Structures are given as structure tokens and as C-alpha cells.
Amino acid sequence: MRPTDHLRSLAADDWQAATRHGFTDALADGSLPKDRMLTYLQQDYLFVEGFVRLLASAIAHAPSLPDAIPAAQFLGLISGPENTYFLRAIDTLGGDPDTPAPAAPVTAEFQALMARAAGSGRYEQMLAVLVVAEWSYLDWASPHAGKAAGLPFWFGEWITLHSGAGFESVVAYLRDQLDTAWQDLDDTARRAVEDTFRQGVALERRFFDAALAGFGAA
Ligand SMILES: Cc1ncc(CO)c(N)n1
């Protein structure tokens, strides 16, 4: 079994809950209330700030230039089309993209997990969080890809950004990096990757739980 399949199997319950979630189902059928989408995107924009720093750290720790290039290209996508999606969608849904929301508890926990991984100096720790984040998003979004064109852009583009051949190749690359790094890890480092991976999947689930509930907002 590939190491990344092993890792996902350790978190199977949370994985299933995070990738077949009422929040993403409602988003994909267009029934998610706009204020819920706005609050989600405001929290997720805080997530993305930490994610960009984490991805930059992984680029810095990749073993070679060929190992780094796909991540660097993905960083360009997040800093470009994904960033402008956030700005347009938050603005259209009635928020102010220039005023960051206060982080909800689950968002703060995610930021802390990403900051720990980014600061660990351990490539496999960075990859563990990156693989969870991108693979779980590919998994929830792919079954909905055919509906994206018929949805308002704040729903449809969010699905399109996380499905299709380009995004599949990002996930394939990240998984391959982690599968390869795993081979050289001792048991202690492998257990640490398992731990981080599990924490990441649990946070993905809780992030969607909180988003569906409006992050505790009235
Ligand atoms: C919480 C969360 N996880 C993963 C992704 C995908 O990058 C995202 N945008 N937000």
C-alpha cells in the first residue's frame, strides 16, 4: 500500500465525513445560504495565509529543483487565480476582503498546525499537512465538477479550483513527494507524520462542521 493510502486509512472516518459533507453538498447544489459561504470564505482566507507560508517552506525544503517546481507553480496558482477568486467572491457576497475576520477556534487550530509544520524543518511534516488539505479538497470537489458551470461563480469557481486534471496533478505530485520521503523515515518520524496527518483530517472535518453552522455567528 502506498504510504499516503496508509495515512488516509488511519483517518478513514474523519476523511469520509470531511469529503462527503453537508456543507459541500449544499455548496454544490447551490442551496448554501450566501452568508454561510461568505463566513466560510473569510475563515478560509485566513487558512490560505498560513497555507501559502507552509507551501513556501515546503518549496524551500524540497530535495531538488525538479521536486520544488510543481509546488512553486501551485504557489503561483494560489497567489494568482485563487487569491483573486477570494477577493471577488468575498466582495460580491457583501464582505470586505481588506478586513480580515477574527479567526474562529478551528481556524486558529489549523493555523497553528500549519505554523508548526512550516517551522519544523521537516519536509515530511510539511507534506503531511499539504497532502491532507489538497487531497481532501480534490476528493470532495471532483464528484461535483459537472455542476460548476451552472452555479453562481462563488460556488462554481470554488469547485473548479479543486477539481480537474490540473488539480489532480497537484495532488499526485504532493502524494508522490510524501510517499518518497516516507521511505527514508525512521519509526519515530513515521509516527509523527501519522499524527500530523490525522490532526489535519480531523481539522478539515471540523472546519466544514463549523462552516455549516456559520462558525458560531448569530
Ligand atoms: C480548510 C481548507 N482546507 C483545504 C483547502 C484547500 O487548499 C482549503 N482551501 N481550506
TrEMBL record:
Binding site for substrate: 44, 82, 134
Catalytic site positions: 204 (proton donor)
Catalytic activity: 4-amino-5-aminomethyl-2-methylpyrimidine + H2O = 4-amino-5-hydroxymethyl-2-methylpyrimidine + NH4(+); thiamine + H2O = 5-(2-hydroxyethyl)-4-methylthiazole + 4-amino-5-hydroxymethyl-2-methylpyrimidine + H(+)
EC number(s) stated in the UniProt entry for this protein: 3.5.99.2
SUPFAM superfamilies with a match to the protein in the record: Heme oxygenase-like
Residue ranges constituting the Thiaminase-2/PQQC domain according to the UniProt record: 15-212
CDD domains cross-referenced by the UniProt entry: TenA_E_Spr0628-like
Pfam families tied to this protein: TENA_THI-4
GO molecular function terms attached to this record: thiaminase activity
GO annotation (BP), single: thiamine biosynthetic process
Annotated metabolic or biological route of this protein: Cofactor biosynthesis; thiamine diphosphate biosynthesis
Superkingdom of the source species: Bacteria
GO cellular component terms attached to this protein's record: cytosol
Keyword set, alphabetical order: Hydrolase, Thiamine biosynthesis
Family membership: Belongs to the TenA family.
Function: Catalyzes an amino-pyrimidine hydrolysis reaction at the C5' of the pyrimidine moiety of thiamine compounds, a reaction that is part of a thiamine salvage pathway. Thus, catalyzes the conversion of 4-amino-5-aminomethyl-2-methylpyrimidine to 4-amino-5-hydroxymethyl-2-methylpyrimidine (HMP).
Descriptive protein name: Aminopyrimidine aminohydrolase
Origin species: Roseovarius bejariae
Lineage, top ranks: Bacteria, Pseudomonadati, Pseudomonadota, Alphaproteobacteria, Rhodobacterales
